[in-house]
Amino acid sequence: MEKIILLIPGIPIFIAFILFFVRKKELVPKISIMLSSMIALLGLYGSYYVISNDRPIVGFDGLLIYNQLSAILVPYVAILGLVIRKYATRYMWDEPGYKRFFVLLNFIFASIYLLVMSNNLIVLALAWQLMSVGLYLLVSFNVGSKTAVKNARWTMYIHKSADFVFLLAVILTYQTFGSFDLVVLKEKWLIMSANPVNDPMIFAVGLLYLLAAMMKSAIVPFHIWLPYTSEAPTPVSGLMHAGVVNVGGILLNKMAYLLILTPAVLNIAFGIGLFTAIFASMLMLVVPDIKRSLGYSTVGQMGYMIMEVGLGAFSLAVYHLIVHGIFKASLFLESGSIIKYARKDPPITERLSYNTFSKENIKYKSSKTFKLIALFTIVPVLAFIGAKAVLAPEFFEFNAAIVILAFAWLTGTQLFLSFFKVSKLDSIKAIFGIIGSFVLVLFSYEFIGLSLEHFLYGKDALLFYEAATLNVTLVSALLVLSLIMITGGLFIYKRHFVDFPDNGDKPNKSKWSFYKLLVKEGYYFEIFNSSKKGKL
Amino acid sequence: MISNIILLFLAGGVPYYFFLEKSDKFSSKSIFLVSGFLLLSAVVLTFFIDKEHTTPYVVISFLSALYSIYKATQTTNFYKLGYYFIFMNAPFFILFEGQGAFYSLSLLVSLLGIYAIASFYEKHYGSANYLYVRGITLATPLVGIHITVYLITIGLYPPLPNSLFFLTYIFNSQADLLWFIVVITLYFGNFLVSMRVLEKSIFGKTNPNIHYIDLNFKEKVTHFTIIMLLALLSIYGMREILLWVL
Fold it and tell me: What pTM, to 2 d.p., does this model score?
């Protein structure tokens, strides 16, 4: 009976097939939503089954599996799919190609389900490629727009390269380990991890999987397809930022046991992820286009997710991609209503937080406020570190601890700044607000992350941390934390608390060059155009 | 060795580049038909002849393929595109011979689709040139869907048959340098050319000066048959790949 759950990837294909024959426009979303609800229900039932029985559902001769990872991701994707379909029902109504949109949407969801539930590298490869073509047709949905088509072309180039790298990795995996079955491979990798492995081929395989994941997850330098695809319909943007970019993280989670054998790959992932997180977040703050800014925000978050993987915190990456997906999808899908409100009422709306915190107090003491916030943020960090040092000292054996703290700090501040208007306030309430956000994020991250880790990997999670731990002291790791905190803090400070003086003074030359580098998005297109014109 | 020469002659575009291209007597439509027929003959022949490839012939066909890729990016005619696709894929066919037969067969079926589209363009828009009849997706979605399916099939995307056969062969074979060069070139060559055509044919705004015409019943049946053939080949390809995996 429970095997019926394995039909989930086929249901969207079935929906797409039915939609071909539907004549009435009104019926297209109805059928799509109704049948997609079935997927959500099946997914929830599957999760219940896996959690209550503590064993996966395997079928189709071991090609598909509904395991712990699927139990988390399938309901998430299914519910996201329902929301996107519901949103698209009205949003896409006047667009030419309404039915085409729903058909393509179902195709891409089929590929995502197949990817999540695959237990075989060949099936994974098929889903991986199917997703690329689905994405291309969705991104270029607005066929009349030259820029949409051009950006879709770029998306396709990067995704096709990712497909090729992935295929190469699959071939080498088979030649090295002699199997395509992920359960079999996991057992092999687990046994091999008992002793140190120094095989360059295994390193190459791990690196290729990382490369493929980086391309699909828009990690620098393969990021350029994501910020420029915002011309796609909003539901597609929501899907891309909340679903499609996550496949890199999903792939790396499926390959987690292979990556134990290649600590160097994990370290590379950490380095590239760290760079992407910082670089893309800075670009996010500088680029003048709001949609591109959101794109870079996603790139930064993906960098963070890859960095978590690089630290061995695989389950944390899963949690991160889900939370980020929900957050980013809501941002995209909400954008229409915000524009509507903005057109009606120029100062948008007065939010509850604004009334509570800042209405009566508009005194401008930014510098003092910033210092106070910095001071009050350090206190809970120290409290947390102290509690951890007493209760779980092994926490500090791994670099992941540093990332959790840094992430909590950044997310806490971001959370606060997203919900509250703080540009002109100087209130003790705001400081408590920021601290509250920080503590909330820190503890939810800690506890949910731990539960997820236990659920997904059990005791094996420690193996990942061990493999990923860099051979550096806690001090150097703390330096990274400080760097993230200082950079993030400075930008948040500049953005929210300081009015730039307009006295005609020219900025410092090096600062100006740095700003130019960011605002030109790392000169990515200049370099490309120069090479195209034969200048390079 | 003789078998290699014959296969190179039949599938690698030798008659075209040496004779047909220079002749005015043959239209691109007839060259397409002749090239398709020669490839079909080559596929049939592989079941009867020696199955050993010789490196120099693979290299020659590879060079011809590179030139064909270049030529394919220069043309805007569906007929010409059709036979360039055949020549482009010749090294794969010669490298894998018997094993590559099904790939060549599914390539032929997808090119049959391209031929049907080219005929449709020629009949209704005066020529098989796709560049000046843009906005097909918005004006006649059904034609757009068919072009998309055929080109995505040639562009090696699953679950369409070309990709499945391609995957089966590359997973099944022992890789060496030549193998890598051929596989990478064909993987990206087919993709780049088909995406270029896809972009230039089905996308774009509709042109108010063009009277767009949709497929008639006969044409719909033709395309439906081709799609069904591709579906059957897909099922077979999937079966092949799964049989091997399991």
Answer: 0.82
What range defines the domain where residue B44 resides?
2-245
Q: What are phi and psi of A59, to 5 degrees?
A: -160, -175
CB B154 within 8 A of CB B107: yes
Partners of residue A126 in chain B, C-beta under 8 Å: 158-159
For the record, the structure tokens of B126 come out as 């005066």
Residue count of chain B, please give it. Answer: 246
Provide the 8-state DSSP code for B205.
P
Q: Which residues pair with A66 in a beta bridge?
A: A57
Residue A325 and residue A236: Cα distance in Å, rounded? 13
Which residues of chain B form beta strands (DSSP E)? none
Query: A329 φ, ψ to 5°?
Result: -65, -40
Chain A residues with CB under 8 Å of B175 CB are 171
A206 CB-contact burial (10 Å; exposed 0-12 / middle 13-18 / buried 19+): buried
Test mutation, B150, B173, B174, B195, chain A, max A CBs within 10 A: B195
* Token reading at A413: 């501040």
> Is the CB of residue B11 less than 8 Å from the CB of residue B39?
yes
Those residues of chain B whose CB sits closer than 8 Å to some CB in chain A are 135, 137-138, 141, 148, 152, 155, 157-159, 163, 167, 170-171, 175, 184, 187-188, 191, 195, 199, 202-206, 241-242, 245-246
Tokens encoding B22: 């220079």
Largest CA distance in chain A: 74
HSE-CB at B20 with a 13 A cutoff on CA atoms is 18
pLDDT per residue as tens digits for the range A97-153: 888 899 999 999 999 999 999 999 999 999 999 998 899 988 888 888 888 888 888
pLDDT tens digits, B26-58: 788 888 888 888 888 887 877 777 666 677 777
From the list B208, B60, B246, B228, the residue with the least C-alpha distance to B149 is B228
Determine if residue A188 is left, alpha or beta; phi over 0 gives left, psi from -120 to 50 gives alpha, anything else beta. Answer: alpha
Closest CA to A313 of A487, A445, A438: A445
Q: How far apart are CA B167 and CA B183, in angstroms?
A: 10
Geometric angle at alpha carbon A96, from A91 and A101, rounded to 5°: 65
- State how many domains chain B has: 1
What does the alpha-carbon distance between residue A289 and residue A294 come to, in Å, rounded to a whole number? 9
Using DSSP bridges, classify how beta strands A57-59 and A64-66 pair: parallel, antiparallel or unpaired. antiparallel
In this structure, what DSSP letter does residue A500 have?
A: P
Q: What is the DSSP letter of A393?
A: G
Residue A236 in tokens: 């597609």
Say which residue the tokens 């099922």 belong to.
B235
B205 chain-A contacts, CB cut-off 8 A: 144
